[in-house]
Amino acid sequence: MSTEPIDLSREDNNVGSLVDRAAKWIFFACALVTVLTTLAIILVLVDGAIDFFSQVSLVEYLTGTDWSPRDATDPSFGVLPLVWGTLVVTVGSALIALPVGTLTAIYLSEYADERVRRTVKPTLEVLAGIPTIVYGFFALSFITPIIQYFNPDVGTFNVLSGAIVVGIMIIPMVSSISEDAMSAVPDSLRNAAYGLGATKFEVSTQVVLPASLSGILAAYILAISRAIGETMAVTLAVGMLPQITASPFAEMQTMTAYMVEIGTGDASVGSIGYMSLFAIGLTLFLMTFTMNVGSMWVRSRYREEYQ
């Protein structure tokens, strides 16, 4: 009786090939879901915005300075007050988060020892995981009373409180991404600078910082995009009054806060107030999309590659 040897390697190759093909299609399906979801969101926003702009002039929407869509006698749909409130909060938060986050990243990358870095960086990332509505209550119960202590005329809702709390909220994003970019700079550059007699401060600011500029700028743009799209913190801290004013102590309204107001209000489906949600949502999407595209361009334009 003769037996032929079984080629186990061929069977293993066949099984491995099936697994590879199955994995390929599973990964493709996951990627396709994300793309289709993005397209579906865009289509929903565009479809609703078309209905809105069929009744409201696009010029009036983009240039008007009065936003009162629920006024029964004379509704107005000038989006500039909402855009202004959003930009004021964003700029104010950036003035806080960008320098603090960058200096924190420099400390973690260049000055802190390994034990401090292992403690501080996870703490910052935990700060990023706090729900935004908690930040809103923090602004109402802590930041606003401090502002009122120095200026008793400030009301419960004000843009300064919202800018401060959003700035605190995006510091971890700036510091974490910037620190990763700085840590990626080769030690050979640092050692060469030290060999030329540079101090640690000079190495940090004149060697490491310029070498990691693309990652730092990308962190800035992503953090600003995050600030533009913030919802609950600014809803609780900034208020619900759409207006254009230069006072940081005034109540304003952002685009996201308006969407919360209408989405949780009594606007009937199909009404002009309800359809304004889609116009505001599309405007907000285009703003954040532009920022994200800018982030990718900056990263590719100023990227440094080391061998």
Cα radius of gyration in angstroms: 26 Å
Task: Give the neighbour order of strands across the main sheet.
Answer: 1-2
Structural class: mainly alpha
Shape: globular
How do the SSEs run, as a string of H and E? HHEEHHHHHHHHHH
Q: Helical percent range?
A: over 70%
- Unreliable residue runs: none
Tell me the distance between the termini. 63 Å
- Give the strand tally: 2
What's the total helix number? 12
Described by strand count, sense and barrel closure, the largest sheet is: 2 strands, antiparallel
- How large is the share of residues in beta strands? under 5%
Mean pLDDT level? 85
Topology overview:
Layout lengths: L7 H46 L4 H6 L3 E2 L7 E2 L2 H32 L2 H15 L3 H19 L8 H25 L3 H9 L4 H12 L1 H16 L3 H6 L17 H9 L8 H30 L6
Antiparallel strand pairs: 1-2
Helix pairs in contact: 1-12, 3-6, 3-9, 4-6, 5-6, 6-9, 7-8, 9-12, 11-12
What does this structure look like?
The structure is a single chain. By secondary structure, the chain is mostly helical. A two-stranded antiparallel ribbon has the order 1-2. The longest helix has 46 residues. The termini are far apart.
Quick overview:
This protein has helices spanning 8-53, 58-63, 80-111, 114-128, 132-150, 159-183, 187-195, 200-211, 213-228, 232-237, 255-263, 272-301; strands at 67-68, 76-77. The protein is mostly helical and 307 residues long.
